[in-house]
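Question (not urgent): is this output format expected?
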Amino acid sequence: RRTNMEKTLELVFAKGDGSKKTLSIADPREGVTLAEAQSAAAKIIEAGVLISSGEALTAFVEARIKTVTVSVLA
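Got this back:
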C-alpha cells in the first residue's frame, strides 16, 4: 500500500456576474507565496484569456493550497 500527498494551488476569481470561478493548478512548487499568486492572477485577468459560462474573470478573490492524501490500494 502506497500513500502520497497531492497538492493543488487554487486561484479563486470573481466573474462579471458576481459568481466565482476557481482555477486549479496541480503540483505547485513548494513555498509559493500569496504575492506570487496575486501577481499570476492579475496577469490572467489582464490577458482576458479565461471565460466561464460567458463571463469574464474580473477580480482576484483568494489563493489557497489544497492538500489531499491519496492511498493506493493495489
